[in-house]
Structures are given as C-alpha cells and as structure tokens.
Write a structure and sequence with these properties.
It is built from nine helices and eight strands. By secondary structure, the protein is an alpha/beta fold.
C-alpha cells in the first residue's frame, strides 16, 4: 500500500510526504492504511494547500508500545518538529481516532477536523472484523469486505494485508494498537470539540457502521455530516471525486 508517486521524506524518526503550498492538510492513515489510500486526495488538493501525511510508526514500535497513546505522541512531536501553527486534520479509521484525541489535547492547533470511518466510539470497531492469520483467500475475502465494491481491494492491497497479518511482529503491533483504541472510547469528551468538523461516512461501512458517523454528528457540536452510497470504510478510495468535492467545499469555508 505504500507504492506512490509522492516520495517519502525522512527527517530523524519522522517519515512523511509533503506536497503543495499554503495551509496544512494533515492526513492520518489507519491500521492497514498508507499513502496509496489518499493518492486521489493528494493529487486534487496539492495545488490548493500543503498536503502532509506522516507514516505512523505502527510497525516500528516495540510490540507492547504500539498503542494509540504513543501514536498520538508521535503526531504531536511531528507537528512540533514541522513547526505548524494550525492544521486541517483528516483521519480515516484509527487515524480518525488519533485525530480526535489530538484535537482534544491540542485544540489550539486544529483549524478543522475531518473524520471518515473513524474509530473512537464503536467498541467493536476492530474486534470481529480484524483479519486473523489464515489463507490468502481468507485474507482476500476479509479485505474485500472493507469496501462496497470488492474490486477496490487490489492484489497489491491484499498482498500487504496478508503480509502484515502473517508476520508475527507486525500482527502483534496491530493487535496492540486495536485493543488500545477500544480502551480509548471518546464518547464522553466529544462535547469538548469546538473545531468545525466534517464527517464523511460510507453507508456500507461494516467496520465503523453508518450509525457511528451519525452518533459523532449528534455529539460533536459544529459538524457537517455526509453519507455516501456505494461506499464502505474508506470513501476517499471508493468515491474519490465525490469525497474531494465535499472536502473542498468544507475547507473553502475555513481557509484564509
């Protein structure tokens, strides 16, 4: 999933991509995500803003330290390292969860928040649907169910998920991060979020179902909510043109 035309930049412990100029749109990927998940978004927005995606060190941390707290710490240190004043924060899946926690801890740093398929509310978000070790066909089937259209689960995508879940060190890091996310339910703190928030949810999301997005909409005061037909857990991959149009309209209201 890391194959991309945008090269990664390495600065000390930070590995990230950066393209464009202007206000910063900071992308946070999920457990099995990467830059390829956001490539249509990057291509669309890099002429309008500075698009930045740090590669979260899920597999670089020791097994027991691959927690949401440590991933949040990494994002805080990255923003400080880059010297960003304020960011437009966008997170998918676990990345959305980290974005929520960052917004709660550093509200002065977040100009807008966008969540799509975010964990943080739904306790079973990574439970029953978590791909366990198994045959390639099993992993292929589970990966395809992430999307409304199974064709979105390319061979490259399935290959990487298969490699992760069959590598004991990587699999244990993913399990640690997933269990950590379940323990960090943010329901009781969502009323603290004041940043303008955009919610984009796939109506066929089986990992963080549609009602999860509706609940975020109810509990976060200043939100726009958009439900996408024919989309699962990653609308920015399945319906990139529609996703980018909604995001652009939202950002245009808040970019100087």
């Amino acid at each position: 999933m890391q194959t991309t035309t945008t090269p990664f930049i390495q600065e000390g412990k930070f590995k990230y991509t950066e393209s464009g100029e202007g206000e910063v749109l900071l992308l946070l990927h999920g457990l099995f995500g990467g830059l390829s998940n956001f490539e249509p978004l990057v291509g669309h927005f890099e002429t309008k803003v500075k698009v930045v995606m740090p590669l979260l060190p899920i597999f670089d941390l020791p097994r027991k330290e691959a927690t949401i707290d440590n991933l949040l710490k990494y994002v805080k240190e990255f923003v400080e390292h880059k010297g960003y004043d304020k960011v437009h924060l966008l997170g998918n899946s676990l990345g959305g969860h980290i974005a929520l926690l960052y917004t709660l801890d550093c509200p002065e740093k977040v100009k807008t928040l966008t969540l799509t398929g975010s964990s943080g509310l739904y306790e079973s978000a990574f439970g029953a649907g978590f791909p366990r070790r198994g045959s390639y066909e099993y992993i292929k089937e589970r990966t395809e169910k992430t999307f409304y259209d199974p064709k979105v689960a390319t061979k490259e995508l399935v290959d990487e998920v298969f490699e992760i879940v069959n590598n004991i060190d990587k699999a244990m890091c993913v399990i640690t991060a997933a269990k950590s996310a379940i323990r960090h339910n943010v329901k009781d703190r969502l009323n603290e979020i004041t940043a303008p928030t955009l919610l984009i949810w796939g109506k066929h999301d089986i990992i963080t179902p549609y009602h999860v997005g509706e609940t975020f909409h109810e509990l976060i005061a200043n939100t726009e909510f958009h439900g996408f037909e024919k989309s699962g857990h990653a609308p920015m991959m399945e319906l990139p043109e529609e996703f980018n149009a909604v995001l652009e309209q939202f950002l245009n209201k808040h970019i100087l």
